Amino acid sequence: MTTSDSNRRPHGFATRAIHVGYDPASAHGALTPPVFMTSTYAFETVEDGLAISSGEKPGYVYGRTRNPTQTILETRIADLEGAEAGLALASGMAAISATLWTLLGAGDRVVIDQTLYGNSYVFFTRGLTRFGVSVTVADLTDPDDFAQALRTRPKLVYFETPANPNLRVIDIAAVAAQAHAAGARVIVDNTFATPVLQRPIELGADLVVHSATKFLGGHGDLLGGVVVGSQTDIAQIRGHGLRYLTGATMAPLTAFLLLRGLKTLELRVQRHSASAMAVAATLAAHPAVRQVFYPGLLASPFHPIAARQMRAFGGLLACELSGGIEAGRHFMNQLTLAHRAVSLGDAETLVQHPASMTHAAYPPEERHRHGISDGLIRLSIGLETPEDIIEDILQALEASQQRG
């Protein structure tokens, strides 16, 4: 590195999202990284193959564990999250399961937050427990409750922030410090915030997972997951969790699409966040709305923590209408621009009913205890003109009021 290089200002987020991990000169000058559609790689010699297979020499052996297009994606997302290394997998649940199957064994204990994506919750409470892993559910926004849970001497602590679907915000730095003092490692699901708004590694987390299907991809046209962390952890997850425990390989074309999505990630998340803030303020001021859940609102109990650890407040929000679940259903059915769908982070505004959709796997009594009411509605605010989104929401609210 030259003196001028060492003194150069570090590149910004958007620049790194477009350039890190790829040099056009490595692919005949192609500006866009090529898609390596191959499952198998040839070796120059037997000795060369042995060296690559043993890890003594960099290279590729078989497409299940590594692909050149995937490598660019993994390098780029790790850089954006402030991690040493990354691993791309076939879905968000693949990223979670490959990581946990690698790091845990029979007799280990895990503490999870009480509010998780429905399938994540089922994986912990019904999946891992079948194989001798003990799982403790705690309120990680309550230091005393968390301290009580840590007395079980867990190996790992796992949580989302903001949480799906009610946007609870957990203090990453405080939880990480408390967990590390108890000898536990910390995994954070950063799907809702993305590294544009929040980088848990920088706040003390050991590993970060994403459903890349959501904001990272951003267009509703792929399934993918990523996990980032230390070189040692990621090599272990690749060699065990991906290679033979799950085999949940990301397709080369999916990696290509995710690289495309990352190029506009910062711009998209900024727009999602600005529009969601406007929608949240509109809902909070409307007489048909009982409560709005969005950490960007000053009235939110999570606003101080979110303002400290996030750069903006994201594109997700939730609400409950004064008329309860029936009013909520009528409101959802009256929306004409927004689509009723379970995903999030797409260009389109999406609305869904957690109790009967994404979080139906929770037993009703647990759902209610953990703050996921039957009347809760979750909205993923898209990239449409903000005034059009708000107009659609207002007409649906008026229709639900007239019906009541």
Automatic annotation (TrEMBL):
| Gene3D superfamilies in the record | Aspartate Aminotransferase, domain 1 (3.90.1150.10), Type I PLP-dependent aspartate aminotransferase-like (Major domain) (3.40.640.10)
Its recorded name reads: Aminotransferase class I/II-fold pyridoxal phosphate-dependent enzyme
Stated family: Belongs to the trans-sulfuration enzymes family.
Q: Which Pfam families match?
A: Cys_Met_Meta_PP
* Gene Ontology process terms (BP): methionine biosynthetic process; transsulfuration
Q: Which domain of life is it from?
A: Bacteria
A single Gene Ontology MF term assigned here is: carbon-sulfur lyase activity
- N6-(pyridoxal phosphate)lysine is found on 214
Please give an example of a GO cellular component term from this record. Answer: cytoplasm
- Which cofactor is essential here? pyridoxal 5'-phosphate
Organism of origin? Rhodovastum atsumiense
**CDD domains cross-referenced by the UniProt entry:** CGS_like
Tell me the keywords, alphabetical order: Aminotransferase, Pyridoxal phosphate, Transferase
